[in-house]
Write a structure and sequence with these properties.
about 500 residues, alpha+beta, OB fold (Dihydrolipoamide Acetyltransferase, E2P), BirA Bifunctional Protein, domain 2, 2 domains, 9-stranded mixed beta sheet, 5-stranded mixed β-barrel, 15 helices
Protein backbone atom coordinates (compact mmCIF):
# COMPACT_ATOMS: atom_id res chain seq x y z
CA UNK A 1 0.00 0.00 0.00
CA UNK A 2 2.82 2.39 0.89
CA UNK A 3 4.56 1.63 -2.40
CA UNK A 4 1.39 2.41 -4.35
CA UNK A 5 1.02 5.71 -2.50
CA UNK A 6 4.62 6.69 -3.22
CA UNK A 7 4.29 5.88 -6.93
CA UNK A 8 1.02 7.79 -7.08
CA UNK A 9 2.70 10.78 -5.45
CA UNK A 10 5.55 10.65 -7.97
CA UNK A 11 3.08 10.58 -10.84
CA UNK A 12 1.27 13.58 -9.43
CA UNK A 13 4.56 15.48 -9.04
CA UNK A 14 5.66 14.61 -12.58
CA UNK A 15 2.27 15.63 -13.93
CA UNK A 16 2.37 18.93 -12.04
CA UNK A 17 5.88 19.66 -13.28
CA UNK A 18 4.88 18.93 -16.87
CA UNK A 19 1.88 21.23 -16.53
CA UNK A 20 4.14 24.03 -15.24
CA UNK A 21 6.59 23.61 -18.11
CA UNK A 22 3.78 23.54 -20.67
CA UNK A 23 2.28 26.68 -19.12
CA UNK A 24 5.67 28.46 -19.32
CA UNK A 25 6.04 27.48 -22.96
CA UNK A 26 2.54 28.70 -23.76
CA UNK A 27 3.49 32.05 -22.24
CA UNK A 28 6.61 32.10 -24.42
CA UNK A 29 4.43 31.29 -27.43
CA UNK A 30 2.21 34.26 -26.67
CA UNK A 31 5.23 36.58 -26.28
CA UNK A 32 6.46 35.56 -29.73
CA UNK A 33 3.10 36.39 -31.24
CA UNK A 34 2.98 39.70 -29.36
CA UNK A 35 6.32 40.58 -30.98
CA UNK A 36 4.74 39.93 -34.39
CA UNK A 37 6.50 36.60 -34.97
CA UNK A 38 4.77 33.51 -36.31
CA UNK A 39 5.99 30.56 -34.17
CA UNK A 40 4.66 28.13 -36.80
CA UNK A 41 5.62 29.51 -40.24
CA UNK A 42 4.53 27.68 -43.38
CA UNK A 43 8.01 26.89 -44.73
CA UNK A 44 11.71 27.64 -44.52
CA UNK A 45 14.31 27.46 -47.27
CA UNK A 46 16.93 24.91 -46.24
CA UNK A 47 20.05 24.91 -48.41
CA UNK A 48 21.99 22.11 -46.70
CA UNK A 49 21.52 19.25 -44.29
CA UNK A 50 23.96 19.09 -41.39
CA UNK A 51 25.92 16.37 -43.16
CA UNK A 52 26.07 18.42 -46.35
CA UNK A 53 27.21 21.48 -44.41
CA UNK A 54 30.02 19.45 -42.84
CA UNK A 55 31.06 18.30 -46.32
CA UNK A 56 31.06 21.91 -47.58
CA UNK A 57 33.39 22.88 -44.72
CA UNK A 58 35.78 20.03 -45.55
CA UNK A 59 35.88 21.23 -49.17
CA UNK A 60 35.93 25.02 -48.71
CA UNK A 61 37.20 25.49 -45.16
CA UNK A 62 36.65 28.57 -43.00
CA UNK A 63 34.21 31.17 -44.25
CA UNK A 64 31.93 28.98 -46.38
CA UNK A 65 28.83 31.12 -46.87
CA UNK A 66 25.20 30.66 -47.87
CA UNK A 67 24.47 27.93 -45.34
CA UNK A 68 20.84 27.66 -44.16
CA UNK A 69 20.02 24.78 -41.81
CA UNK A 70 16.98 23.70 -39.84
CA UNK A 71 16.77 21.35 -36.89
CA UNK A 72 15.60 20.63 -33.37
CA UNK A 73 17.39 22.36 -30.48
CA UNK A 74 19.07 19.70 -28.34
CA UNK A 75 21.22 21.91 -26.09
CA UNK A 76 21.91 25.58 -25.36
CA UNK A 77 24.66 27.49 -23.59
CA UNK A 78 24.72 31.24 -22.92
CA UNK A 79 27.75 33.40 -22.20
CA UNK A 80 26.54 36.98 -21.97
CA UNK A 81 26.58 38.47 -25.46
CA UNK A 82 27.19 35.09 -27.09
CA UNK A 83 25.15 31.88 -27.04
CA UNK A 84 25.50 28.42 -28.52
CA UNK A 85 22.77 26.06 -29.66
CA UNK A 86 23.16 22.44 -30.73
CA UNK A 87 20.62 21.51 -33.40
CA UNK A 88 19.95 18.12 -34.96
CA UNK A 89 18.37 17.21 -38.26
CA UNK A 90 17.91 13.79 -39.86
CA UNK A 91 21.57 13.66 -40.91
CA UNK A 92 23.37 14.78 -37.76
CA UNK A 93 24.13 17.48 -35.17
CA UNK A 94 25.89 20.83 -35.49
CA UNK A 95 26.65 23.78 -33.23
CA UNK A 96 25.27 27.27 -33.85
CA UNK A 97 27.09 30.36 -32.59
CA UNK A 98 24.86 33.39 -31.98
CA UNK A 99 26.33 36.82 -31.19
CA UNK A 100 24.41 39.91 -30.16
CA UNK A 101 26.62 42.25 -32.26
CA UNK A 102 26.00 40.16 -35.41
CA UNK A 103 22.30 39.42 -34.97
CA UNK A 104 21.23 42.69 -33.39
CA UNK A 105 19.42 43.07 -30.09
CA UNK A 106 15.96 42.18 -31.41
CA UNK A 107 17.00 38.94 -33.09
CA UNK A 108 19.33 38.02 -30.25
CA UNK A 109 16.43 38.56 -27.86
CA UNK A 110 14.63 35.71 -29.62
CA UNK A 111 16.98 33.38 -27.77
CA UNK A 112 15.05 34.06 -24.58
CA UNK A 113 12.08 32.27 -26.12
CA UNK A 114 13.99 29.27 -27.53
CA UNK A 115 13.72 26.11 -25.46
CA UNK A 116 15.27 22.69 -25.89
CA UNK A 117 12.99 20.79 -28.24
CA UNK A 118 12.05 23.80 -30.37
CA UNK A 119 12.76 23.65 -34.10
CA UNK A 120 14.69 26.60 -35.55
CA UNK A 121 16.16 27.70 -38.84
CA UNK A 122 19.56 29.36 -38.98
CA UNK A 123 21.59 30.90 -41.79
CA UNK A 124 25.22 31.94 -41.71
CA UNK A 125 28.87 31.09 -42.28
CA UNK A 126 30.89 28.03 -41.30
CA UNK A 127 33.96 28.22 -39.08
CA UNK A 128 35.85 26.02 -36.63
CA UNK A 129 35.99 26.92 -32.92
CA UNK A 130 39.18 26.85 -30.85
CA UNK A 131 38.11 23.44 -29.57
CA UNK A 132 37.97 22.20 -33.16
CA UNK A 133 34.18 21.98 -33.56
CA UNK A 134 32.64 22.91 -36.92
CA UNK A 135 30.10 25.64 -36.18
CA UNK A 136 27.71 27.97 -37.97
CA UNK A 137 28.21 31.65 -37.19
CA UNK A 138 24.56 32.65 -37.37
CA UNK A 139 23.51 35.81 -39.18
CA UNK A 140 19.78 35.04 -39.05
CA UNK A 141 17.68 32.80 -36.83
CA UNK A 142 13.99 31.90 -37.19
CA UNK A 143 11.57 30.04 -34.95
CA UNK A 144 10.03 27.25 -37.05
CA UNK A 145 8.08 25.35 -34.41
CA UNK A 146 7.56 26.08 -30.73
CA UNK A 147 7.45 22.81 -28.75
CA UNK A 148 4.95 22.92 -25.90
CA UNK A 149 6.11 19.72 -24.24
CA UNK A 150 9.70 19.16 -23.09
CA UNK A 151 11.93 16.35 -24.24
CA UNK A 152 12.62 13.53 -21.75
CA UNK A 153 14.92 14.53 -18.90
CA UNK A 154 17.73 12.42 -20.31
CA UNK A 155 17.18 13.38 -23.92
CA UNK A 156 20.14 11.23 -24.98
CA UNK A 157 18.05 8.10 -24.42
CA UNK A 158 14.86 7.00 -22.72
CA UNK A 159 15.46 4.52 -19.91
CA UNK A 160 11.92 3.06 -20.03
CA UNK A 161 12.02 0.54 -22.90
CA UNK A 162 8.25 0.32 -23.26
CA UNK A 163 8.00 4.11 -23.29
CA UNK A 164 10.41 4.11 -26.23
CA UNK A 165 7.98 1.89 -28.16
CA UNK A 166 4.85 3.81 -27.12
CA UNK A 167 6.41 7.20 -27.91
CA UNK A 168 8.65 6.35 -30.85
CA UNK A 169 8.88 10.02 -31.82
CA UNK A 170 10.68 10.75 -28.54
CA UNK A 171 12.88 7.70 -29.01
CA UNK A 172 13.93 8.88 -32.47
CA UNK A 173 14.56 12.42 -31.26
CA UNK A 174 16.74 11.30 -28.38
CA UNK A 175 18.25 7.98 -29.46
CA UNK A 176 20.83 7.99 -32.23
CA UNK A 177 20.95 4.17 -32.25
CA UNK A 178 17.22 3.96 -32.98
CA UNK A 179 17.58 6.36 -35.89
CA UNK A 180 20.48 4.27 -37.21
CA UNK A 181 18.48 1.03 -37.02
CA UNK A 182 15.50 2.38 -38.92
CA UNK A 183 17.67 4.05 -41.53
CA UNK A 184 19.36 0.67 -42.03
CA UNK A 185 15.98 -1.02 -42.27
CA UNK A 186 15.06 1.20 -45.19
CA UNK A 187 18.36 0.44 -46.93
CA UNK A 188 17.89 -3.30 -46.30
CA UNK A 189 14.49 -3.32 -48.02
CA UNK A 190 15.92 -1.29 -50.92
CA UNK A 191 18.76 -3.83 -51.28
CA UNK A 192 16.31 -6.77 -51.31
CA UNK A 193 14.29 -5.09 -54.04
CA UNK A 194 17.48 -4.54 -56.01
CA UNK A 195 18.33 -8.27 -55.89
CA UNK A 196 14.89 -9.31 -57.10
CA UNK A 197 14.54 -6.56 -59.69
CA UNK A 198 17.93 -7.47 -61.16
CA UNK A 199 16.64 -11.01 -61.73
CA UNK A 200 13.55 -9.91 -63.61
CA UNK A 201 11.00 -10.17 -60.78
CA UNK A 202 7.98 -7.88 -60.97
CA UNK A 203 6.87 -6.18 -57.76
CA UNK A 204 3.09 -6.30 -57.28
CA UNK A 205 0.44 -5.56 -54.66
CA UNK A 206 -2.28 -7.95 -53.52
CA UNK A 207 -5.34 -7.48 -51.25
CA UNK A 208 -4.92 -6.98 -47.52
CA UNK A 209 -8.63 -7.60 -46.89
CA UNK A 210 -9.56 -11.08 -48.08
CA UNK A 211 -12.74 -13.20 -48.01
CA UNK A 212 -10.63 -16.09 -46.68
CA UNK A 213 -7.31 -16.05 -44.85
CA UNK A 214 -5.13 -18.66 -46.51
CA UNK A 215 -1.55 -19.44 -47.41
CA UNK A 216 -0.32 -20.20 -43.88
CA UNK A 217 -1.20 -21.87 -40.59
CA UNK A 218 -2.32 -18.95 -38.44
CA UNK A 219 -5.34 -17.47 -36.66
CA UNK A 220 -6.52 -14.40 -38.63
CA UNK A 221 -7.91 -11.05 -37.58
CA UNK A 222 -11.49 -10.57 -38.68
CA UNK A 223 -13.28 -7.35 -39.58
CA UNK A 224 -16.64 -6.48 -41.13
CA UNK A 225 -17.32 -4.65 -44.37
CA UNK A 226 -20.60 -2.80 -43.85
CA UNK A 227 -21.37 -2.01 -47.49
CA UNK A 228 -20.79 -5.60 -48.59
CA UNK A 229 -22.45 -6.95 -45.48
CA UNK A 230 -19.77 -9.63 -44.92
CA UNK A 231 -16.82 -10.46 -42.73
CA UNK A 232 -13.35 -10.10 -44.20
CA UNK A 233 -9.95 -11.19 -42.93
CA UNK A 234 -6.64 -9.39 -42.73
CA UNK A 235 -4.23 -11.47 -44.78
CA UNK A 236 -1.98 -13.94 -42.99
CA UNK A 237 0.16 -14.56 -46.09
CA UNK A 238 0.66 -13.27 -49.63
CA UNK A 239 0.85 -16.65 -51.31
CA UNK A 240 -2.49 -17.45 -52.88
CA UNK A 241 -2.92 -14.19 -54.76
CA UNK A 242 0.68 -14.17 -55.98
CA UNK A 243 0.26 -17.69 -57.37
CA UNK A 244 -2.83 -16.47 -59.22
CA UNK A 245 -0.50 -14.03 -60.98
CA UNK A 246 1.85 -16.86 -61.97
CA UNK A 247 -1.18 -18.67 -63.37
CA UNK A 248 -2.02 -15.46 -65.24
CA UNK A 249 1.36 -15.37 -66.96
CA UNK A 250 3.68 -13.34 -64.73
CA UNK A 251 6.55 -15.81 -64.38
CA UNK A 252 8.43 -13.91 -61.64
CA UNK A 253 6.52 -11.87 -59.07
CA UNK A 254 7.15 -10.63 -55.55
CA UNK A 255 5.53 -8.52 -52.87
CA UNK A 256 6.93 -6.92 -49.73
CA UNK A 257 3.97 -6.20 -47.49
CA UNK A 258 2.37 -6.35 -44.09
CA UNK A 259 0.67 -9.53 -42.95
CA UNK A 260 -1.38 -10.02 -39.80
CA UNK A 261 -1.55 -13.01 -37.47
CA UNK A 262 -3.70 -13.09 -34.36
CA UNK A 263 -1.10 -14.73 -32.15
CA UNK A 264 0.92 -14.02 -29.04
CA UNK A 265 3.64 -11.38 -28.72
CA UNK A 266 7.27 -12.26 -28.03
CA UNK A 267 10.75 -11.02 -28.83
CA UNK A 268 10.37 -12.75 -32.22
CA UNK A 269 6.66 -12.15 -32.90
CA UNK A 270 4.51 -9.11 -33.58
CA UNK A 271 0.88 -9.49 -34.71
CA UNK A 272 1.65 -7.47 -37.85
CA UNK A 273 4.97 -7.89 -39.59
CA UNK A 274 6.61 -7.37 -42.97
CA UNK A 275 6.90 -10.36 -45.26
CA UNK A 276 8.59 -10.89 -48.60
CA UNK A 277 7.04 -13.54 -50.82
CA UNK A 278 8.22 -14.30 -54.33
CA UNK A 279 7.32 -16.92 -56.94
CA UNK A 280 9.32 -18.00 -59.96
CA UNK A 281 7.93 -20.26 -62.66
CA UNK A 282 9.91 -23.30 -63.89
CA UNK A 283 11.96 -23.59 -60.69
CA UNK A 284 11.84 -25.70 -57.53
CA UNK A 285 12.87 -25.38 -53.89
CA UNK A 286 16.57 -25.84 -54.66
CA UNK A 287 16.46 -22.65 -56.75
CA UNK A 288 14.76 -20.88 -53.84
CA UNK A 289 17.62 -21.92 -51.54
CA UNK A 290 20.07 -20.20 -53.84
CA UNK A 291 17.84 -17.13 -53.95
CA UNK A 292 17.75 -16.90 -50.13
CA UNK A 293 21.53 -17.12 -50.00
CA UNK A 294 21.88 -14.42 -52.64
CA UNK A 295 19.42 -12.07 -50.92
CA UNK A 296 21.25 -12.39 -47.59
CA UNK A 297 24.74 -12.10 -49.04
CA UNK A 298 24.05 -9.16 -51.34
CA UNK A 299 21.94 -7.31 -48.78
CA UNK A 300 24.58 -7.66 -46.06
CA UNK A 301 27.32 -6.57 -48.45
CA UNK A 302 25.31 -3.59 -49.68
CA UNK A 303 24.27 -2.37 -46.22
CA UNK A 304 27.17 -3.42 -43.98
CA UNK A 305 30.00 -4.10 -46.42
CA UNK A 306 30.47 -7.64 -45.07
CA UNK A 307 28.66 -10.99 -44.90
CA UNK A 308 29.75 -11.54 -41.29
CA UNK A 309 27.73 -10.05 -38.43
CA UNK A 310 27.76 -10.31 -34.65
CA UNK A 311 24.59 -11.83 -33.20
CA UNK A 312 24.32 -12.08 -29.43
CA UNK A 313 28.10 -11.90 -29.14
CA UNK A 314 28.70 -14.65 -31.70
CA UNK A 315 29.99 -14.27 -35.27
CA UNK A 316 27.47 -15.37 -37.89
CA UNK A 317 28.49 -15.57 -41.55
CA UNK A 318 25.94 -15.53 -44.36
CA UNK A 319 28.54 -16.65 -46.90
CA UNK A 320 27.49 -19.52 -49.18
CA UNK A 321 26.83 -22.33 -49.08
CA UNK A 322 24.59 -22.47 -46.02
CA UNK A 323 24.47 -25.69 -44.02
CA UNK A 324 21.88 -28.21 -45.21
CA UNK A 325 20.22 -31.16 -43.47
CA UNK A 326 16.81 -32.80 -43.41
CA UNK A 327 14.15 -31.95 -40.87
CA UNK A 328 13.94 -35.62 -39.92
CA UNK A 329 17.65 -35.89 -39.07
CA UNK A 330 17.68 -32.55 -37.23
CA UNK A 331 14.81 -33.56 -34.93
CA UNK A 332 16.28 -37.00 -34.31
CA UNK A 333 19.70 -35.54 -33.53
CA UNK A 334 18.33 -33.05 -31.00
CA UNK A 335 15.63 -35.01 -29.18
CA UNK A 336 15.95 -38.65 -30.27
CA UNK A 337 12.57 -38.85 -32.04
CA UNK A 338 12.42 -40.18 -35.59
CA UNK A 339 9.00 -38.95 -36.68
CA UNK A 340 8.84 -41.63 -39.37
CA UNK A 341 8.45 -44.15 -36.54
CA UNK A 342 5.20 -42.41 -35.53
CA UNK A 343 2.78 -42.39 -38.44
CA UNK A 344 -0.18 -40.84 -36.63
CA UNK A 345 -0.81 -38.05 -34.15
CA UNK A 346 -1.77 -40.32 -31.26
CA UNK A 347 1.48 -42.30 -31.22
CA UNK A 348 3.62 -39.20 -31.66
CA UNK A 349 1.71 -37.37 -28.93
CA UNK A 350 2.33 -40.26 -26.54
CA UNK A 351 6.07 -40.23 -27.30
CA UNK A 352 6.28 -36.48 -26.76
CA UNK A 353 4.44 -36.84 -23.44
CA UNK A 354 7.06 -39.39 -22.38
CA UNK A 355 9.67 -36.67 -22.97
CA UNK A 356 7.83 -34.47 -20.47
CA UNK A 357 6.21 -32.19 -23.04
CA UNK A 358 2.78 -30.68 -22.41
CA UNK A 359 1.03 -31.63 -25.65
CA UNK A 360 -2.21 -30.10 -26.93
CA UNK A 361 -4.57 -33.02 -27.73
CA UNK A 362 -6.15 -31.02 -30.56
CA UNK A 363 -2.95 -30.79 -32.57
CA UNK A 364 -2.49 -33.07 -35.57
CA UNK A 365 0.70 -34.87 -36.52
CA UNK A 366 2.05 -31.96 -38.56
CA UNK A 367 1.59 -29.45 -35.76
CA UNK A 368 3.22 -31.86 -33.28
CA UNK A 369 6.30 -32.23 -35.49
CA UNK A 370 6.46 -28.46 -35.78
CA UNK A 371 6.43 -28.26 -31.97
CA UNK A 372 9.40 -30.65 -31.82
CA UNK A 373 11.20 -28.43 -34.30
CA UNK A 374 10.55 -25.18 -32.42
CA UNK A 375 11.37 -26.72 -29.01
CA UNK A 376 14.48 -28.79 -29.66
CA UNK A 377 16.01 -27.71 -32.97
CA UNK A 378 15.32 -24.11 -33.88
CA UNK A 379 17.02 -22.46 -30.86
CA UNK A 380 20.26 -24.33 -31.68
CA UNK A 381 20.50 -23.29 -35.33
CA UNK A 382 22.73 -20.22 -34.98
CA UNK A 383 24.72 -20.41 -38.21
CA UNK A 384 22.68 -20.16 -41.44
CA UNK A 385 21.03 -23.55 -41.99
CA UNK A 386 18.41 -25.02 -44.32
CA UNK A 387 16.17 -27.83 -43.04
CA UNK A 388 14.73 -29.81 -45.94
CA UNK A 389 11.87 -32.19 -46.70
CA UNK A 390 8.90 -31.80 -44.38
CA UNK A 391 6.02 -34.23 -43.73
CA UNK A 392 3.11 -33.73 -46.09
CA UNK A 393 0.81 -32.90 -43.13
CA UNK A 394 2.83 -29.74 -42.43
CA UNK A 395 2.68 -28.32 -45.93
CA UNK A 396 -0.58 -28.58 -47.85
CA UNK A 397 0.67 -26.16 -50.54
CA UNK A 398 3.94 -27.95 -51.38
CA UNK A 399 4.62 -30.59 -54.02
CA UNK A 400 5.43 -34.11 -52.78
CA UNK A 401 9.08 -35.06 -52.71
CA UNK A 402 10.34 -37.01 -55.64
CA UNK A 403 10.63 -40.63 -54.50
CA UNK A 404 8.83 -40.20 -51.15
CA UNK A 405 5.11 -39.39 -51.05
CA UNK A 406 5.15 -38.94 -47.25
CA UNK A 407 7.32 -35.82 -47.57
CA UNK A 408 7.11 -32.58 -49.52
CA UNK A 409 9.79 -30.45 -51.17
CA UNK A 410 9.94 -27.71 -48.58
CA UNK A 411 12.73 -26.05 -46.65
CA UNK A 412 12.94 -23.55 -43.86
CA UNK A 413 15.97 -21.33 -43.33
CA UNK A 414 17.25 -20.60 -39.81
CA UNK A 415 19.76 -18.09 -38.50
CA UNK A 416 20.45 -17.03 -34.93
CA UNK A 417 17.92 -19.50 -33.54
CA UNK A 418 15.08 -18.02 -35.63
CA UNK A 419 13.20 -19.11 -38.72
CA UNK A 420 14.00 -16.59 -41.46
CA UNK A 421 12.75 -18.24 -44.67
CA UNK A 422 10.19 -20.79 -45.82
CA UNK A 423 9.99 -22.17 -49.36
CA UNK A 424 8.29 -24.86 -51.43
CA UNK A 425 8.32 -26.54 -54.74
CA UNK A 426 4.76 -25.33 -55.21
CA UNK A 427 1.95 -27.83 -55.63
CA UNK A 428 0.36 -27.28 -59.05
CA UNK A 429 -1.78 -30.43 -59.30
CA UNK A 430 -5.31 -29.09 -58.65
CA UNK A 431 -6.77 -32.50 -57.76
CA UNK A 432 -4.00 -33.23 -55.24
CA UNK A 433 -4.30 -29.70 -53.84
CA UNK A 434 -8.03 -30.04 -53.23
CA UNK A 435 -7.58 -33.44 -51.57
CA UNK A 436 -4.79 -32.06 -49.33
CA UNK A 437 -6.94 -29.18 -48.15
CA UNK A 438 -9.82 -31.52 -47.36
CA UNK A 439 -7.54 -33.98 -45.55
CA UNK A 440 -6.07 -31.22 -43.40
CA UNK A 441 -9.51 -29.88 -42.59
CA UNK A 442 -10.48 -33.36 -41.35
CA UNK A 443 -7.29 -33.83 -39.33
CA UNK A 444 -7.28 -30.38 -37.78
CA UNK A 445 -11.01 -29.94 -37.18
CA UNK A 446 -11.48 -27.39 -34.40
CA UNK A 447 -7.97 -25.93 -34.81
CA UNK A 448 -8.46 -22.21 -35.50
CA UNK A 449 -4.97 -21.99 -37.03
CA UNK A 450 -5.58 -24.71 -39.65
CA UNK A 451 -5.15 -23.98 -43.36
CA UNK A 452 -8.44 -23.19 -45.10
CA UNK A 453 -9.57 -24.41 -48.51
CA UNK A 454 -9.78 -21.33 -50.74
CA UNK A 455 -12.23 -22.26 -53.49
CA UNK A 456 -11.27 -19.24 -55.61
CA UNK A 457 -7.62 -20.28 -55.55
CA UNK A 458 -8.50 -23.90 -56.29
CA UNK A 459 -10.50 -22.87 -59.34
CA UNK A 460 -7.63 -20.65 -60.51
CA UNK A 461 -5.22 -23.58 -60.12
CA UNK A 462 -7.47 -25.67 -62.34
CA UNK A 463 -6.60 -23.31 -65.21
CA UNK A 464 -3.00 -24.49 -64.95
CA UNK A 465 0.06 -23.19 -63.08
CA UNK A 466 3.54 -23.99 -64.39
CA UNK A 467 6.13 -25.71 -62.16
CA UNK A 468 6.97 -23.00 -59.63
CA UNK A 469 9.27 -22.30 -56.72
CA UNK A 470 7.89 -20.09 -53.95
CA UNK A 471 9.62 -18.32 -51.07
CA UNK A 472 8.60 -16.37 -47.97
CA UNK A 473 11.10 -14.34 -45.90
CA UNK A 474 10.51 -12.29 -42.76
CA UNK A 475 11.96 -8.81 -43.25
CA UNK A 476 11.87 -7.87 -39.55
CA UNK A 477 14.02 -10.81 -38.52
CA UNK A 478 16.52 -10.07 -41.26
CA UNK A 479 16.80 -6.52 -39.90
CA UNK A 480 17.23 -7.93 -36.39
CA UNK A 481 20.14 -10.07 -37.56
CA UNK A 482 21.90 -7.29 -39.49
CA UNK A 483 21.57 -4.81 -36.61
CA UNK A 484 22.11 -7.25 -33.69
CA UNK A 485 18.76 -6.43 -32.13
CA UNK A 486 17.26 -9.21 -30.01
CA UNK A 487 13.65 -8.02 -29.89
CA UNK A 488 11.46 -7.54 -32.94
CA UNK A 489 10.06 -4.41 -31.29
CA UNK A 490 13.43 -2.72 -31.78
CA UNK A 491 13.12 -2.97 -35.58
CA UNK A 492 9.40 -2.16 -36.01
CA UNK A 493 8.70 1.54 -35.72
CA UNK A 494 5.32 1.09 -34.05
CA UNK A 495 5.05 -2.39 -32.51
CA UNK A 496 1.76 -3.62 -31.10
CA UNK A 497 1.34 -2.85 -27.40
CA UNK A 498 -1.51 -3.19 -24.97
CA UNK A 499 -3.40 0.08 -24.62
CA UNK A 500 -2.68 1.97 -21.40
CA UNK A 501 -4.67 4.88 -20.03
CA UNK A 502 -1.48 6.68 -18.95
CA UNK A 503 0.39 6.28 -22.22
Amino acid sequence: MMRWQRQDWLLICMSSRLERITEQRLESLNRLRTRGMDPYPHSYRVTHTVREAMAVFEQQGEGAEGIALAGRVMARRSMGKMSFLDIRDASGKIQLSLRRDLLGSEKYGLLEEIDIGDIVGAGGTLFRTRSGEITVEVSDVTMLCKALRPLPEKWHGLADVEKRYRHRHLDLISNEESRRIFALRSRIITAIRSVLDSQGFLEVETPVLQPQAGGALARPFVTHHHSLGQDLYLRIALELYLKRLVIGGFDRVYEIGRVFRNEGLSVQHNPEFTLLECYQAYTDYTDMMRLVEEVYVRTAQEVLGTTSVIWRGQAVDFGVPWQRTTLRLAIEDHCGIDFEDYRDAASLRQRMTELGMDVDPKKGRGRLIDELLSTFVEPRLIQPTFLLDYPVEMSPLAKKKRGNDRLVERFEGFVGGMEVANAFTELNDPVDQRERFLEQLREQAGDDEAEVADEGFLQALEHGMPPTGGLGMGIDRLVMLLTDQHSIREVILFPQLKTRSDS
